[in-house]
C-alpha cells in the first residue's frame, strides 16, 4: 500500500524551466556562449553547478573554480529576480487537486527537489501547506540519481520506502526513486522517460487513485 507520495518540483508540481532558461541565456549571451532550448532541456533536474558544467562543455570552455562559482551565483541572482513574477499560471494543471485528493486519503506528501530555491517557490505559489516534509538541494550531499533526497523525505514522513511513490519528470529523478526502492511514476512520455515503469501526463485522466495507492500491496 502506498502511504506517501514524494514530488519533484520543476516539471511535476510547477514549471520553472523557462525562468532557468532566461537566466542561463542572459549569462551565456553576456559571455558570448551558445545556449539554446535543447541544452536547457539537458539541465532538467540537474543541480546548478552541474548545469553550468553542461553549458561550459557545450561551448568547449574551461574555467577555474572561483569563476564558476561566480557565474553560478550570478545566474541564481537573476533567476531569483525572475521568480518574483511566478504565479498560479506556472502550476502543473490539476496538481493542487491531485495532492489534495491524496491528502484526503491520508497519504503523506513530501517534496524532493534539487532546487535550492524550492522553499521560496512553494511559498510564492502558496503550496507550502500541502507538504508534510520538504527536502531540497540544501539538505542533501548527493544529487539525483542518488536516492538520498527521496530517502530523506520518506524518513521525515516516517514511511518505509516500499510504501512510497515518487513523481518525477527527469531521468535522474526516476533513477533516484528506483534506487531508493520506491514506486516511480514518470511525468512525461515513455519516449522522454524510458526507465519509468509508468508515465502520466494528466494527474486526473491518467491516474486511478485506487490503483495507484494499491501498488505494492500483496495480491490478496
Ligand atoms: C530543478 C531544475 C533544474 C535546476 C535545479 C537546481 O530541479 O529542474 O533545472 O538546475 O532545480 O535549481 P537551483 O539553481 O534553483 O538550485 P527539480 O529537482 O526541482 O526538478
Ligand atoms: Mg524536475
Structure in words:
- With 220 residues, the protein is α/β, with parallel strands linked by helices.
- The protein has nine helices and six strands.
- Helix 1 (17-31) packs across helix 4 (65-83).
- Bound molecules: 1,6-di-O-phosphono-alpha-D-glucopyranose and magnesium ion.
- Residues 8, 10-12, 44-45, 169-170, 173 line the site of magnesium ion.
- Keywords: Isomerase, Magnesium, Metal-binding.
- One of its GO terms (molecular function) is beta-phosphoglucomutase activity.
- Belongs to the HAD-like hydrolase superfamily. CbbY/CbbZ/Gph/YieH family.
- This is Beta-phosphoglucomutase.
Shape by Cα distribution: globular
**Percentage of residues in strands:** 5-15%
How far from one another are the termini? Answer: 12 Å
Q: Residue share in helices? A: 40-55%
Structural class: alpha/beta
The quaternary structure here is: single chain
Binding site for substrate: 8-10, 24, 43-48, 51, 75, 113-117, 144
Family: Belongs to the HAD-like hydrolase superfamily. CbbY/CbbZ/Gph/YieH family.
Active site: 8, 10
Binding site for Mg(2+): 8, 10, 168-169
Using brief descriptors, characterize the structure shown.
220 residues; 9 helices; globular; binds 1,6-di-O-phosphono-alpha-D-glucopyranose
Per-chain topology:
Elements: E1 4-7, H1 17-31, H2 37-42, H3 48-59, H4 65-83, H5 95-104, E2 108-112, H6 118-124, E3 133-135, H7 148-157, E4 164-168, H8 171-179, E5 183-187, E6 198-200, H9 209-214
Parallel strand pairs: 1-2, 1-4, 2-3, 4-5, 5-6
Magnesium ion (MG) binds next to loops.
Amino acid at each position: 500500500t502506498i502511504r506517501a507520495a514524494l514530488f519533484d518540483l520543476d516539471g511535476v508540481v510547477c514549471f520553472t524551466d523557462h525562468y532557468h532558461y532566461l537566466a542561463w541565456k542572459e549569462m551565456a549571451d553576456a559571455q558570448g556562449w551558445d545556449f539554446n532550448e535543447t541544452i536547457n532541456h539537458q539541465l532538467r533536474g540537474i543541480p546548478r553547478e552541474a548545469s553550468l558544467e553542461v553549458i561550459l562543455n557545450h561551448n568547449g570552455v574551461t574555467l577555474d573554480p572561483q569563476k564558476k562559482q561566480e557565474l553560478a551565483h550570478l545566474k541564481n541572482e537573476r533567476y531569483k529576480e525572475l521568480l518574483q513574477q511566478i504565479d498560479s499560471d506556472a502550476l502543473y494543471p490539476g496538481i493542487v487537486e491531485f495532492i489534495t485528493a491524496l491528502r484526503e486519503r491520508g497519504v503523506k506528501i513530501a517534496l524532493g527537489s534539487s532546487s535550492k530555491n524550492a522553499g521560496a517557490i512553494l511559498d510564492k505559489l502558496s503550496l507550502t501547506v500541502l507538504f508534510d516534509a520538504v527536502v531540497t538541494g540544501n539538505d542533501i550531499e548527493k544529487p539525483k540519481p542518488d536516492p538520498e533526497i527521496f530517502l530523506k523525505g520518506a524518513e521525515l514522513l516516517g514511511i518505509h520506502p516500499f510504501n512510497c511513490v515518487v513523481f518525477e519528470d527527469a531521468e535522474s529523478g526516476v533513477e533516484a526513486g528506483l534506487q531508493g526502492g520506491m514506486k516511480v511514476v514518470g511525468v512525461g512520455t515513455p519516449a522522454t522517460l524510458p526507465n519509468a515503469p509508468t508515465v502520466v501526463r494528466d494527474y486526473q485522466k491518467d491516474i486511478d487513485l485506487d490503483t495507484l495507492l494499491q501498488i505494492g500491496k500483496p495480491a490478496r
